[in-house]
Design goal:
eight-stranded mixed sheet, 13 helices, 12 strands, binds adenosine-5'-triphosphate, binds magnesium ion
């Protein structure tokens, strides 16, 4: 059994708007073992980023965690004080986003920004901190680190900026890195380098990673375990081989079928007909029902619970139970 670093249990993160409640994350349970890479995949708007932001306590009003637990080594992060949360964000968990330009301060040299990240959380003098920055720059494959230290963000390429962000995320040696579409803004060659870097850092430092992507190719190449989300819920989960070799949920099958057509529809998961339903007006039954090629009568009126297929492979669908019933 893997030792768990992060355990999300029955997380609910809702938006409380004047028009109604939007259940962006609805009863999501997810586990990240130590040293492993866990992926979340799904179409746009299914709740991937909201799940990540809940862990980092970065939900913006009117969104907030409305229920559930987020355990980091057994400690419930939702119960911490602001001060304790800040400490967790600085020392235990760090997050990298899609567009590094928005996370970097354009008027401060990148080296200094990373140095500040150290000084905010660790007792170290400036000279020592600078040394550590240069060391981490080297570790994340930034060539001529002393020279790059003095650069402003706009003087660096997109790939280098993302390396700076990864360096910033790594300086305090976090236990968990949350990477939300970390390479979506980069071209394919640079993307491959950055992904290799993240995997390498996990392998060599024992860090865990929660990797969010709408790209199944990225997930397949990087992850040990995968969670597929749809309309705020986990609809399938399993280890990466099971999930890609034996997908069971019609949604996962649809997503996988769409990568085969990648040359026609690059990067788009649009071969499943129809659209994701509006979260404020979810159908009575299964949220995927109207798009599902295998939908049955019960799917229109009842919401499927998670069904355990064994060996950590779980799906939210009536099909397995139906099949079992048919064989009895
Ligand atoms: N300010 C808001 N008010 C109400 N609902 C919101 C707000 N922001 C986001 N949501 C809801 O949260 C849902 C989940 O959004 P989230 O950002 O987690 O999606 P995602 O899976 O990360 O998508 P993407 O692939 O596009 O990044 C959205 O579908 C939307 O309905
Ligand atoms: Mg997102």
């Amino acid at each position: 059994m893997d030792e768990m670093l992060l355990e999300i249990k029955h997380l609910k993160s809702y938006f409380f708007t004047r028009k109604g409640i939007s259940p962006a994350v609805d009863d999501v349970s997810l586990q990240v073992p130590k040293g492993k890479i866990v992926g979340i995949v799904g179409e746009s708007g299914c709740g991937k980023s909201m799940t990540a932001k809940s862990v980092m306590d970065l939900l913006k009003y009117p969104g907030r965690v409305a229920g559930g637990e987020i355990l980091l080594e057994g400690r419930d992060l939702t119960k911490l004080s602001e001060k304790e949360k800040r400490k967790v964000r600085g020392e235990d968990i760090s997050m990298i986003f899609q567009e590094p330009m928005t996370s970097l301060n354009p008027v401060v040299k990148v080296g200094k920004q990373v140095r500040e990240a150290i000084l905010n959380h660790q007792k170290m003098d400036k000279a020592e901190a600078k040394k550590r920055v240069i060391e981490v720059f080297r570790q994340v494959g930034i060539s001529e680190p002393e020279k790059r230290y003095e650069c402003y963000p706009h003087e660096l390429s997109g790939g280098l900026r993302q390396r700076v962000m990864i360096a910033m995320a790594m300086v305090c040696r976090p236990k968990l890195m949350i990477a939300d579409e970390p390479t979506t803004a980069l071209d394919v060659t640079i993307e491959a380098q950055i992904l290799k870097l993240i995997k390498n850092l996990c392998d060599t430092t024992g860090m865990s990673c929660l990797l969010i992507s709408h790209n199944l190719g990225v997930i397949a190449q990087m992850c040990d375990y995968v969670y597929v989300m749809y309309a705020g819920k986990v609809v399938e989960q399993g280890d990466v081989f099971t999930l890609f070799d034996h997908p069971q949920h019609p949604y996962t099958k649809g997503l996988l079928a769409s990568i085969i057509h990648l040359d026609e529809l690059p990067e788009r998961l649009s071969t499943i007909p129809g659209v994701v339903p509006n979260l404020m007006h979810l159908p009575e039954g299964c949220a995927f029902c109207s798009r599902c090629s295998e939908a049955m009568e019960c799917c229109k009126t009842k919401k499927p619970e998670l069904h355990d297929l064994g060996n950590g492979h779980v799906i939210r669908c009536f099909l397995p139970a139906e099949r079992e019933a048919a064989h009895e």
